[in-house]
Amino acid sequence: AVVSTQSTGDVTKIIETVKSEYRPLYPQIFQYSRSCCVPGFLNLADRCRSGELTKSMLTDKYLSVIGEGVYMVEALSPTFCEMMLEELDNFNARVLQKSRPNTMNRSGVMVEELGLLDFVNDLIADLLAPISLVLYPEWCGDDGLDSHKSFTLKYALKEDTELAYHYDNAEVTFNFCLGRDFSGAEVYFTKMTGEPEAGQYMEAEHVPGHVLIHRARHMHGTKPLLSGSRYNILTWLRSSSLRNSFCPMCRSKPRLTPSVRMGDGFTV
Fold first, then answer.
1. What is the DSSP letter of 20?
2. Lower CB count within 10 Å: N or C terminus of the chain?
3. pLDDT digits (tens, 9 = 90+) for 193-232
4. Over the stretch 75-120, which tens digit does the pLDDT of each residue have?
5. Angle, CA of 106, 98 and 30, to the nearest 5°
6. Category of 265 on φ-ψ map: left (φ > 0), alpha (ψ -120 to 50) or beta
7. CA 185 – CA 206 distance, rounded (Å)
8. E strand or H helix at 242, and its extent?
């Protein structure tokens, strides 16, 4: 099973408050349905699961190759993107207390707090995990990608407009663009963390409805937004079998202690 990896405390209180007080604009998007994705994305995920597609077949015929290990493909339907954008507007206008999505971004919502955790869990199990296993088998570990951290992001003038050079605390990243009109805010990539050489420089322009897929430890950043606003849903997929032997943040074997919920993808 795929489970989220968020902490307790204030997050739990926010989740309980939202569940009791927030009235969704589109209740149907809070339960996973394959209609959220375009047929082509469903087809490639199904063929990955069945073993029909090898990595070379997937990258040659189905994905746009941005550079080594970085891919883009149309994934979300226009209808789903528009409903999700309106839902986020509605949520942000009514829910004042929210956690920061991560340590670098300020504007965004954790999927637990939004009420989308079950949706994302099912999306991962049905589509993202099979694709990851074909693209990045070495990053899935012996037990697969068994946890995640997922959140929305917003880039807008006078809010977050860019993102510094970094890598994600995960093994595989799926970055879905929901859209709105925008220019700039391209994502750039260089090397894998820990590699001494600069690596291939590459840039990816987000396209509404498309997903950017990459190894989480591929160093990257976001160039300045020039106009408009851009909304994304990100899923950081994690493998406990890999992380239990090597922490990507401290770059050593972690010393683990029990916690109430799964913490950052490790297991005791």
1. H
2. N
3. 988 877 789 999 999 999 999 999 999 999 999 999 999 9
4. 999 999 999 999 999 998 887 677 888 878 878 899 999 999 999 9
5. 110
6. left
7. 8
8. helix 240-243
Locus of tokens 């206008």: 93
Q: Which residues pair with 176 in a beta bridge?
A: 211, 233
- pLDDT of 256 above 80: no
Token code pair at residue 77: 């339907």
- For 159-243, where are the E strands, in sequence order? 163-166, 172-179, 182-184, 187-192, 202-204, 210-215, 218-222, 225-238
Torsion of CA 106, 120, 179, 211, to 10 degrees: 110
At 263, the pLDDT band (50, 70, 90 cuts) reads low
Phi, psi angles (nearest 5°) of residue 184: 80, -160
- For residue 124, the 8-state DSSP code is I
Q: What b/e string do you get for 68-82 counting C-beta neighbours within 10 Å, with b at 16 or more?
A: ebbbbbbbbbeebbb
Does the predicted TM-score (pTM) go above 0.85?
A: yes
